[in-house]
């Protein structure tokens, strides 16, 4: 293991996916079905003028990598124009359910994995380029990504990491110097947009869909080989694969998925397209496409215009959709276990873990220690209902509550005025009946809070550590994109820095914690997005 940071073009890559699984070696990029294989070896397609736009310092340091200059061999690797000697790039084969329907073979249509790097702690991390050109899985598309969606993936995956949400990471954002034609809302208004490539990083990018494809095509040897690979490499604590271990592994995937979803619900993250090919086998948030952040707390909200008909992936549906997706994974690996009874209890593990994790997170957000779970649950549900029935910014509400609740605890005589001030700060609009409902809830909560033993100061610290001040608000991402498209990277860099410490006050950046401005309420790219990227 090396301690001196090195340039990625000099780095030593491992290739466990390629070496331990079955791959098609032809390097042929023509779109086609690829039965019989886990992956296809394929090289990225070079771009005209790769140059670095953003770099994630901490992740790079963790991977033992040094920041490259704007142009040069390292950036050429991050754009797919050059390869390090040890790389064996590949695109993985997977299938999936999209919006509830089986879609057949999908696969990495524009993602190409370069191999794995060993981090300073000895763990291994796969580096994958998104937008690096066609692969056998590109179907009718071009294998490219636009700057708009790449900025969104780069910024948001790192912001999620710093919020403590399980996620894939992003190492670099590189402009390609090329233009890519996209119809942003699939409404006949195609236009050229600048192209970009994100190098993203995770222990593995294997998804539920990687298993589903083998059930669909009856490739049982490949199914087992992939499960064994994932267990041995990523769940070694479970022991050598066996029918019992496959079942315990499924339980662990259920548990991790529940923890991920509990975190999404606690910060107001809406994934937007929770197809089974977007569910990581490690319980990580994967594919930052038409995602968004709740501004007014609204369980029916999704930014994804493709989903406006059914709102299948709206905020409030996410816990249920993850369960449905886990059931599809269970179906896919059923041939590996003794029967459905070996897997069914794991779905309860999902439900229970989701419940307990959400409960614990909510206690933290409200500065409480565990009390009577049923009464607490009723208190939490009453808050969710009062928030949903009004137009209150989720992030501002909880952050402001972290200041106000301990202050009222210290000086209860000013309570009423302070609660009203909190609501005024968090609300986009407030009808008298909505205000009454929220004030009623705050009084009920305050009675519960008064039973706490901790000092107001301790409660305040606990709440501030649970309620972020800064999230990647939809309009901020859009502003950063519009500036980046004109060559101005200042907001992008500022957001990167501020979102590294989302729980810190950072008063000099207070403007980045502001509620959504009026102009952004219905703005395309901010309030509404599509899968076009
Ligand atoms: N421009 C494109 N060229 C080729 N394939 C694409 C393109 N956009 C999407 N795909 C493929 O379509 C499928 C579903 O797309 P989706 O938008 O969920 O994925 P994505 O954003 O490309 O990728 P990922 O899930 O890897 O983050 C995937 O198989 C994906 O690789």
Automatic annotation (TrEMBL):
One Gene Ontology molecular-function label: AMPylase activity
Region annotation Disordered: where it falls in the sequence: 506-533
Keywords: ATP-binding, Magnesium, Manganese, Metal-binding, Nucleotide-binding, Nucleotidyltransferase, Transferase
Biased composition range(s): Basic and acidic residues: 506-524
Binding locations of Mg(2+): 278, 287
Reported cofactor(s): Mg(2+); Mn(2+)
InterPro entries per the UniProt record, alphabetical: SelO
Classification via HAMAP family: SelO
Function: Nucleotidyltransferase involved in the post-translational modification of proteins. It can catalyze the addition of adenosine monophosphate (AMP) or uridine monophosphate (UMP) to a protein, resulting in modifications known as AMPylation and UMPylation.
Protein name (Swiss-Prot/TrEMBL): Protein nucleotidyltransferase YdiU
Gene source species: Hymenobacter luteus
Chain's gene name: ydiU
